[in-house]
């Protein structure tokens, strides 16, 4: 009996010992291995910028050829700054957030990571970002277009450089649109209202040999439903979840109008009843096989994908998508609601600077900025953005890209440029805790209810009430728009 | 003789019975094999993007382009397979050794704290990894500083509770008399383990070997976390590189998945002898 | 037991404990370092508002806020439904298949085992792609065509709250049971043939042998598969994550997914740790009950 107790005590001691190890590690200033901030020379001399330093960057395969170029990028950077080493960590897209989050939570993030600008507030909240505002040279700033650069800000800080700015639009089948009598050129040039759009997609519905060709199909399965709603509400007077005076916008009646429209388009028969489980792969397949006239979301690079399939059909070797038809892909803007201005949904991704548990030296900070600028401008940016069919957002990138050939449809290029002019402005003024609350409302209430709305399980009014309730619980009666 | 009556009437009855069994088994096999079939036929397609998958039951075209693409995609394609082989083999061997000894101790030796220790081990299985991954990462990367090494890939799973539990359950059905008789002959526990337990546990060790190998081979997240150069990635991490921002090279991904499944087959068929023969305790007893 | 034999036994068992500790020492070390330490630090974190640059101690706030959250209870309900529908079916299916494999020729046995094991070697992501295709909501979808064959209406499988959970369950039924089958077959082969011989002499038929020999002898194995199956099912995360993202309307939000979201979507690490420990407590109670009711006759 006593032996048994002794054993237990020993075990307890063992677990306690490991426990104190835990306590140690969280309080101790253990140098995070891959945070350059602690590995560079301890010299306080900030004027000496020739000390060797390593900058780590966590990068996903941004474009198909991107990862292949890592070695070359590292070498070029080293040639430019012989004392600096750029160490690139490759990561796959969908898992890279989880890796970054684990590293951030462990207190040892990489110096740079390629993420969406919407992720900035999440890391800013944890105080794990590096403000590079004071370290950026005027020449660097001048190189970037202003709108995308704004997206890399939060509060007063600038946390990195943008790589590209893309609009999420919709894509149309030229032939079908002409058959339905839609003047697509005018739409590309002047946009359309929801009523015009509703009519257009209704006239695009065709029944042929037992199959339905829909007017419009948007990928809404799972969390993708978020994209659908975000793209729509931007054009209904709510370019951001928060108004200028920082009130939560989605409690406005404009929001209800959008929810009603979502149901209307399905009930009209213009969109499939099963919309709630159409995923990104499925709707692109439907577009290529002529089961829909318009699809969303649409990115500029889809034109390339459609062109490739057209060539395969011509080659006739069975490699094209089964049952697919030749398609001319048209970039189209989203419709606007009521009298509201069309605002396009812009996505800005870029190189964001992180800091570890320990304060990085000024010297290291300056080196991180050099690396971020190297990646976001000039040759690297030119190649990447051309691969992606994305517009160039730096002067140096445009210059470097001048020699790269493009076979894009000029109408589409012009349409994208026009939409970029209407891109929703960045909102660095939204405080991080408000932003975090909004994300929570979105994930816990909006997305689930939207899925139910799409599946015809609740009415737009019911969803609106639920969102209102959740919003008031999160932001208070005074924190939300009441109209 | 056995569970089934082999001298059951005449030959036709037996054939009839076996045919029905085979038909039932085949039907179930069809359902489970369907995804694999799809994986295989898509791997013979062109290296196109995922949005353009054909969703057809029959390949429109037979080409090995995707296999070539897989190996040409990265200079590290072979290295990924090698890394996976090294890690999975080491983890497999160490699990078979240490889980067998621990399983034996927990099932057949009376020692103080046995029940408590086992309960503690088992309870650790109940904590989801989402929560332990950050402390584990801190331990490996910030404290031990061994990220991007084979040690980091191998150490956390040197021996798993799952395998200890499995070994313990299997060994619990070995009759005690067999061990007692060894004792009477003056064998110590180590000798008993080698001479009696191991021959009787070939089956469970083979099962453990294949399950552990497979599990390690298929692990994605941990190797993804602790590697930071392409040459240290495992095949599962490498495969994910085929996914880009808005596109996926679907066929090469499937080709890679097919290639990565091959070692499993080889292992499976080389270990099948142990699965099938089984063991007869009686033989040892007699 | 007489005192003399017990003394003899004690003499025989001398030194056993030392061997036992030697046999488990590696397992214990690996456990202490790579499991106990992270679990302990998760325990500490669960009382904190975690931040890599200095956490704040907030007592049991994480726990109280979880216990007040409607979504937590909903996710537990979903998890229990999923577990009840999948784990027993998996056990019965794999048991039946193992029994059916036994009388076949050796080569056929191997082939079937390999075939059933195959789905386990395919990556989860690749499988999810295929299942999304099977659950295609349009009338041309694989499963809907199958329903249409019997004159039934098409279903919006993953897109509707009423069928989404069932779809995930169906996926689990038809996915890999290879591990369980291999373990069961191994256990079946381990049954001493002398038991069957004795039963044959008594003139027992197939079902009597099943009831009196096979089922009792497989009890340790069944217990193992049941406990690990329930643990796995309570932590299930990938299928819901890849197939439905927890929707529609939280119909497939399970605890594993909720913990993931809390930790990585909302960055509330302390709360996620608390959720996990509550989950572990639940699994622990269930496992304890399983041992209590099924572990009784098992010889240790």
What share of the residues of chain C does DSSP label as strand, in percent?
under 5%
Number of domains of chain B: 2
Main sheet overview of chain B: none
State the strand order across the main sheet of chain C: 1-2
Helix coverage percent of chain C:
over 70%
Helix-strand category of chain B: mainly alpha
Number of H/I helices of chain B? 14
For the secondary structure, the number of strands of chain C is 2
- Ranges of chain B where pLDDT stays below 50 over 5 or more residues in a row are 281-286
What is the average per-residue confidence, as pLDDT of chain C, rounded to a whole number? 84
- Sequence stretches where pLDDT stays below 50 over 5 or more residues of chain C: none
Q: Give the termini separation of chain C.
A: 18 Å
Helix fraction bin of chain B: 55-70%
Rg result of chain B: 24 Å
Topology:
The complex is a heterotrimer of chains A (about 475), B (about 290) and C (about 300).
Chain A: H1 2-27, H2 36-39, E1 53-59, H3 70-80, E2 84-90, H4 93-105, E3 112-116, H5 120-125, H6 138-143, H7 146-151, E4 153-154, E5 157-158, E6 160-173, H8 174-179, H9 184-190, H10 194-203, E7 206-208, E8 211-218, H11 225-234, H12 253-267, H13 280-288, E9 292-298, H14 302-315, E10 329-332, E11 345-353, H15 362-376, H16 378-388, H17 395-401, H18 410-421, H19 432-454, H20 460-475
Parallel strand pairs in A: 1-2, 1-3, 8-9
Antiparallel strand pairs in A: 3-11, 4-5, 6-9, 6-10, 6-11, 7-8
Chain B: H1 11-43, H2 65-73, H3 77-108, H4 114-124, H5 129-143, H6 150-154, H7 161-171, H8 176-184, H9 189-200, H10 202-218, H11 221-226, H12 235-239, H13 250-277, H14 281-285
Helix pairs in contact in B: 1-13, 2-13, 3-7, 3-10, 7-10, 8-9, 10-13
Chain C: H1 3-12, H2 16-45, E1 48-49, E2 56-57, H3 61-67, H4 70-101, H5 106-121, H6 124-134, H7 142-149, H8 161-174, H9 178-189, H10 193-201, H11 206-217, H12 219-234, H13 238-243, H14 255-265, H15 269-294
Antiparallel strand pairs in C: 1-2
Helix pairs in contact in C: 4-8, 4-9, 4-12, 5-9, 12-15, 14-15
